[in-house]
Amino acid sequence: MRDGKSADQRPLVVVSKEKNAVVIVAVDDAAARANLEPGLPLANARMICPELNVVDEDKAADAQALNAVADWCDRFTPLVALDPPHGLFLDITGCARLFGDEKSLLTNLCHALGRQGFVVNAAVASTPVCARTMTRAVSGAIVLQGEEKAAVSPLPLFALGASEETIRGLRRAGLKTIGDVAIREPHEITARFGAGLTALLQQALGQSDAPISPRKPLPDYVVEKRFPEPVATDAVIASTIDLLAHMLIASMEKSGKGARRLEASFFRTDGAVSSIMVEAGQPVTQTHTVARLFREKLDALADPLDPGFGFDMIRLSASHVELVIQEQRDLDTHAQDDDEIAALIDRITARIGKHRVLVYLPQDTHIPERAAIAVPAQHRLAAAHESAWMECTRGEPPLRPLRMFGMPEPIKIIAPFPHGPPAGFQWKGRFHRLVHIEGPERIVMEWWNEEEILPQSSSRDDAFNRLHPPHGEPQDAIDHKKLTRDYFRAEDRTGLRFWLYREGVYGREVRQFCWFLHGLFA
User: Fold this and answer.
1) Exposed / middle / buried, residue 34 (Cβ in 10 Å: 0-12, 13-18, 19+)
2) pTM of the prediction?
3) Which of 239, 289, 308, 494 is the most exposed place for a label (fewest CB within 10 A)?
């Protein structure tokens, strides 16, 4: 919760609509002093305190703020999990020594978030539920392993985090604290309130545990640098990335690994975190390669990296690594050329994005528009080198155009009806008189990958009419992806060569042909 000072000194409450009633979900200190609390209907609250400052709950903004705080908490541990709607779990196993001890880490975290305007309750315990239970009643507690029961037993029932209905049921049974519930036999609690409450109670008492689900996967290798004074200049940032790249490469080299995906995170003093990710087509094992990729990425950012009041920490992590296999190469230059091409692709990808640097791979299909697939060159360069394309015989014209349209374009045709070759066609306002025609070449769609063209019907004519309505009725029912195509290679009087087709088999699939231009020959 933000502890902001505003000109409006009236008690502030946040409300939400629940079960057709507007109730309070959060209050500030002034509202709490006026005996207002979450769960109280707004109408009752106005009777207690007529001068209320009421704000509607914005769950999307709350979730966005919680995620931003979680990003900032990555500086303490990479294992950060959300505990909606207002909590976070941090697994600090092995991390506390980096900050002195658990108390120092807890103090630094709370003070830093307090400077950003947040009111924070935090606790350290051996289980997440125990720590969360402590934060609901006590701030800054550190519970040693084995002392969980003694720590949570005096706390009121609401700190356990069970549902309101369960809490009311426990109070009616005469149970007021967590310790009152803990002295009961587990089977008694389970029979009355369900296994969920029993499991929650056991985790709060440290008798069982449940793992947290971190927001981000743990990177394979991480290095970072903290600054005693915030840094903001490009030169310092670049030199820091170079230093971290050297440390990261040295660490991976001991295991014979190379990085395929790298991420640099910049932690600002005001809590904002910016991250930049780069990828490589081959495992990176050179420091200068890492530095160069990040320079390209930083230079290409649409919104330049904003240091604000400066960065107090920069982290470099490798989230995807691969084993580097040393291989004996020949004395020719092909291998070196491949490495240079891969490095060039990495640099271009870092600048303009991997979805803009593509390579085409052949596909085992006779459908023209599916004969090749565009994939990121960064990850499929080796496959592109090994691909086997259909070769053209020297001296013969190609059977497929070099320029094929993404979508076939409809044209108006002049042709003897119904099966004669085209004599001319109109495309983009210009008429082309054809002088040479080759074809037709029939291409049938892959019926084994598609549903049946004709639906189940007692009458074949009824099915035909549904797929191909009579003239004047909507043509939306026609599935063009399932119709047979007859392709023609044609040349007009000016020497331009076209690849066009008529769609459908007359009398069986269509009652009127549609013609399309699919490509141009060079």
Assistant:
1) middle
2) 0.67
3) 494
Q: List beta partners, residue 141.
A: 123
Those residues with Cβ within 8 angstroms of residue 501's Cβ, 6 or more apart along the chain or in another chain: 408, 440, 443, 485, 486, 487, 488, 515, 516, 518
Alpha helices in 387-434 (DSSP H): none
- Round to the nearest angstrom and report the end-to-end CA distance of the chain: 66
pLDDT at residue number 390 = 65
> Which domains are present in the chain?
12-57 (3.40.1170.60), 60-204 (no CATH), 221-325 (3.30.1490.100), 403-521 (no CATH)
Q: Tell me which of 23-27, 142-146, 465-469, 516-520 is least confident.
A: 465-469
Given the DSSP bridges, would you call strands 12-18 and 21-27 parallel, antiparallel or unpaired? antiparallel
Give the model's pLDDT for residue 132. Answer: 92
How does strand 273-284 pair with strand 514-521?
unpaired
Query: Which three-class secondary structure state does DSSP give residue 191?
Result: helix
The span from the CA of 519 to the CA of 403, in Å, is: 6
pLDDT at 120 over 80: yes
In whole angstroms, give the CA distance from residue 277 to residue 247: 18
Q: How far apart are CA 365 and CA 384, in angstroms?
A: 17
Which is more confident, 363 or 312? 312
DSSP 345: H
Q: What pLDDT was estimated at residue 445?
A: 82
Nearest to 318 by CA among 268, 257, 266, 379: 257
Q: Which residues pair with 80 in a beta bridge?
A: 90
Two tokens, residue 119? 């009111």
